[in-house]
Amino acid sequence: MNDKTRDYADRLDVVQALQALVEKKLTSGTSGNVSTRSDTGMLITPTGVAPDGLLPEHIVAMNLDGHVAGDQLTPSSEWQMHADIYREKPDVNAVVHCHSPYATILACAHKPIPAMHYMVAAAGGHGIPLADYATFGSKALSLSNLEALSNSLACLLANHGQLATGASLGKALKLAELVEEQAHCYWGTLAIGGPNLLSKKEMDDVLEAFGNYGQQRCPPKRDQQSEPES
Question: Is the whole-model pTM more than 0.85?
Fold first, then answer.
């Protein structure tokens, strides 16, 4: 794959990720933003363009200092928090931000998600933390997010929404879905008296189990599989 083809494919991935946020009811209108790491910085969704009208050529290529080269659209107003995550977390290659309903409810109530379900550990820790409030698009918000993400792949943004990261766009999007699922579950338990939390030992065991979960190697192709014994 040449550089031009790869660039188009990466841009298309960003477009499809933002559109998936809408399809999965994790955001609406122009409130979400998505980015992926690139060789020269990042590719990020532009500000004010509705997902259903977004095209690969609308995606903004920029460096992590905020410089946008050439004749491009204006990047998302939240570009700073994306850039700082890439700068500070080298294992992260994609960032998804959205205002999913239940995560936003908890964020507005300043309630981080505790260890009320073992799948909370999919974010990498014993809970999903809450980043302190700061004005959208500000450096202060970016710093607040980084603190919350110091031991987690995702966080809630106080009075704002949620933020999910990953080694790929697919993983970041999947994590954003999981954060919303866990937020919905926690919101529901709060309505009936609150959850019974898992212990630190129980969550440590889950985190260890996650490290060995799923296919640890690719299964052989069908024509390479041995025939079953008779």
Answer: yes
